[in-house]
């Protein structure tokens, strides 16, 4: 599994984190979140939990 943060442009709420299957590229899930400062750090995993912030 690969986790990626991506800014879709426009408003600051257009930030999404994706979980991508490393073997075939299928998107397992995507989750949008608000981000005020325009910094989109990579998601971090620990014990099957994905932490995201920006």
Secondary structure layout plus pairing:
Layout: E1 2-7, E2 15-20, E3 27-33, E4 44-46, E5 49-51
Antiparallel strand pairs: 1-2, 2-3, 4-5
Structure description:
This protein is an all-beta fold and 54 residues long. 0% of the residues lie in helices and 46% in strands. The chain contains no helices and 5 strands. A 3-stranded antiparallel beta sheet has the order 1-2-3, with no helix packed on it. The protein has a two-stranded antiparallel sheet with strand order 4-5. Strand 1 and strand 2 form a beta hairpin. It is globular.
List keywords for this structure.
two-stranded antiparallel sheet
Give a short synopsis of this structure.
This protein is mainly β and 54 residues long. The chain is built from no helices and five strands.
